[in-house]
Every structure is written in C-alpha cells, then in structure tokens.
Amino acid sequence: MLKNYVYVLASLLIFTGCKSLNINKKMKSSFFENQFTGIYIYDVNADKVVYNYNGTKYFTPASNVKIVTLFAGLELLSDSIPAFKYKVDKDTLTIQGTGDPTFLHPYFKDSTAFNMAKKYKKINMITNTIADKKYGPGWAWEDFDSYFSPERSTFPMYGNVLTIQNENELKSTPTFFENTIKITNKGYGREELLNSFYFDKNRTKETAIPMIIDSLLITNLWNDLLPNKVNLIKESAIKPSKIAYSIPSDSLYKRMMNVSDNFLAEQLLILASSTLSDTLSSENTIDYMLANQLKDIKQKPRWVDGSGLSRYNLFTPNSLVEILTKMYKKIPQERLFSFFNIEGRSEVLKDGFSKDEFPYIFAKTGSLGNNYNLSGYILTKTNKVLIFSFMNNHFMHSNAKIKEQMQFIFKDLRDHY
Predict the structure, then answer these.
(1) What angle separates helix 65-76 from helix 262-273, to the nearest 10 degrees?
(2) Which tens digit of pLDDT belongs to each residue from 237-246?
(3) pLDDT of residue 27
(4) What are phi and psi of 86, to 5 degrees?
C-alpha cells in the first residue's frame, strides 16, 4: 500500500513538473524575449500555485482594472442600481444624482427619472456633488471625441454621447443636436471645446461621439424632455434621502464586462461611492476598497480609475488572481462566470481565440497600445478551476500573435492539468 502511495505521489509531482516545464519552454522562446510578461496560475480548490512567472511584478493592466471595479460594485451596491436620491415637497421633486449611467442610455434606455419627474410641476436637480473631474487621471487627451472616452458626471444622460445614424436619413440621439450636425465629405467627430459635431455623409455605421457635459447642456436636454420644468440648483434646504432604483445591477456588470465599456466602468465606481457618502468620488471608492476588502492583497496596486484607460494603473498578476479568488469564494460559479467573457463567443474575445464546443475560458481582456492582458478562470477537462492572470506589456508584435501564443498555454492547461 505504501509503495503504491509513493508511486502515485511521484507521478503527480512529475506531472506538475512537466506542466511547468512546458510553460517554461514556451516562455523561453524568442517570441517573449523582448517584452515584459507575467503569469500567475492558481488551483483554487487545491490551494496550490500551478505556475508563477514574474507574478509579483507590476504591469499596466488596461481593462483588467474592470475586474476590480466589478468587485467594488458587487461589494458596495445592492441587487439594483440606485438611480438617484429624491425628496418630494408638494408639487416639487428634488433629485440628486448618484452617477447612474443607464438613464436613456443607448443600450439600457432606462427612463426611471423621466417617469417620476413628469408627474411633478417643478423639478430641482442637484448635480454639483461630484468630486471627479470629467476625465480620469492619465487618460489620453486626444481621445476626447472617441466613443470609448465619454465624460464622467453626476447624472449621465444618453450615455453622455451623441449617437448618430445615417442609413436612410440622418438621425441623432438625443435629437437636440440633430439639426446642427455639420455634414462633411470625410471624417466624423466633435470640436475639442465645443458641442459642435460633424459627420461624414457617406458613413452608415452607427457612431457614438462624446458630448461636453456642462450645466447648460443638462438643462437643454432636460427641457427637451420636460419643457420649462427642470432647474439645476447647487444647494437645497430639502435634502434628498429616498432612493429610486433603476435596472438590476447584474445587467450593468455584464454589459460593462462583455463589451469592456469604459463609461459604465467609470460610472460604476462613482455609483459605488454614493453608498459611502453624499460626495460622488471614484477615489473614495478606491480608497475604501483598498482599506477594507483589499487590505490583505500582497502587492498593493496603484489603482486610479474604473476602466483602465489610464496608464497610471499598476497591478501584479498575483494581485489580480487574489481578487479573482475572493470573488470565486463569495459568488456562486454560474453567476460569477456570467460576468466574464467566454472565449470565442464574446465581443472582446471573439478575435484570436478559437470557438471550442465547450467554453473553458471565462476572462477579461485588457488592451492598450503595445499591451495585452487576460485574467480570469479556466475550466480543465478534469473539472478543475484554475484562476489566472497572463499579462503582456511593451511588445512590438500584433495582438493576434500574442493571443496565439497565449492559447497554446491555455489549451495545454485545459487538456492536461
């Protein structure tokens, strides 16, 4: 019996060693020699580190930050999104924004605020409770009119973007700008400091262009909905305390993760801060999470925004695996995996990863120029769950080539671990 036990133990050690050697061989290839790479793989049920290569080194995470933003939402928000705080005084409704991004959003189209506001003669809106600047620290200035960089705000409307359609005729949402869009022969976008939009007459693809969010625009957009009823105020003797809720929180999480939506991620951190104080602040949420739910992380991250647009963010593969592990231990697997992209089937994983009959990677991508990362969960053929973070920074290859090399390792783990 002892002899058989020793034989089985030796076989397991050889197997694990071979697996590490297979990954080591791949990592020592010329492909990876001129870039920064970190891999950390953890068998959560066996409580064992399967592989560690630069796992404690800091990397630019890009949209892998959304994993941590998701964790903040799951920890601080209830099962429904707080749309706004309010108080009623006779025929007057006073509303204070919480940062909910879903109101009249092109995807969610939530109308909770509109449906309540139209019942009253006068609506006072408090929108100056946000500490965040319109852009996050370290964002690229030239992205001001790119669809992935909407401004952050207290009470977003329409996703804080102008959506233009031009199939049979030019249409815009909101319609407020429809008659002022300049038709051009080439290009589309917005003037840097003005809500002055232009659009290529031959472009038929639906296009989102960020708006400049200020008090004048908010007033105009609301008066377009409810003429002469809405006033923006800075202070009020009436302190809104009741909370109106909009959509199920999981719907917001899934959309943010599946299409890697930067705007939803940024507003999610702001939303989470509304549960901590009346001041809306991404920094407050980050500080709270680092001091509480993430206080035991071995390598404290530099976490500065919700989306990962900033190159100031720094996380290690090990710290991302620790956060993914915390979620795995708290949230039922089916629900947790539903937030993550499925390889070969999702918006952001469909290119470069093959479509297997049975999905085995549930993960979040993170990409910026010369950076591509993937962190999440692998289901092996023996039903083991591996939690991993595979980070690639400062490479000169194409993303497709990086994904190809990563997939060799993922499939090897799936088939043989």
Answers:
(1) 40
(2) 778 999 999 9
(3) 85
(4) -150, 165
The mean pLDDT of 356-377, rounded to a whole number, is 90
* CA-closest candidate to residue 312, choices 302, 298, 325: 302
Residue 15 counted as domain residue: no
For residue 233, give its domain range. 74-270
Query: Do residue 90 and residue 173 come from a single domain?
Result: yes
Residues 6+ apart with CB under 8 A from 267: 99, 100, 101, 152, 156, 306
In a domain, 199, yes or no: yes
Domain co-membership, 95 together with 222? yes
All residues at 6 or more sequence positions from 8 whose CB lies less than 8 Å from its CB, including other chains: none
Q: Are residues 264 and 276 in the same domain?
A: no
Question: Any bridge partners for residue 183, and if so which?
Answer: 199
Domain count, the chain: 2
Residue type, 32: F
Residue 3's pLDDT band, with cuts at 50, 70 and 90, is very low
- Whether residues 390 and 306 fall in one domain: yes
Instruction: Tell me the CA distances in angstroms from 227 to 73, 113, 144, 162, 230, one per residue in order.
Output: 35, 15, 30, 20, 8
Whether residue 52 contacts residue 40, with contact meaning beta carbons closer than 8 Å, is answered with: yes
Report the half-sphere exposure of 11 (CA within 13 A, side-chain side).
Answer: 7
Sign of CA dihedral 103, 105, 111, 117: positive
Please check whether residues 48 and 98 belong to one and the same domain: no
What gap in Å lies between CA 154 and CA 393, rounded to an integer?
A: 34
| 277 alpha carbon, distance to own chain's centre | 23
Residues with Cβ within 8 Å of residue 106, at least 6 apart in sequence: 158, 159, 161, 163, 173, 208
The span from the CA of 387 to the CA of 404, in Å, is: 20
CB 285 within 8 A of CB 273: yes
In sequence order, the 6+-apart residues with CB closer than 8 A to the CB of 168 are none
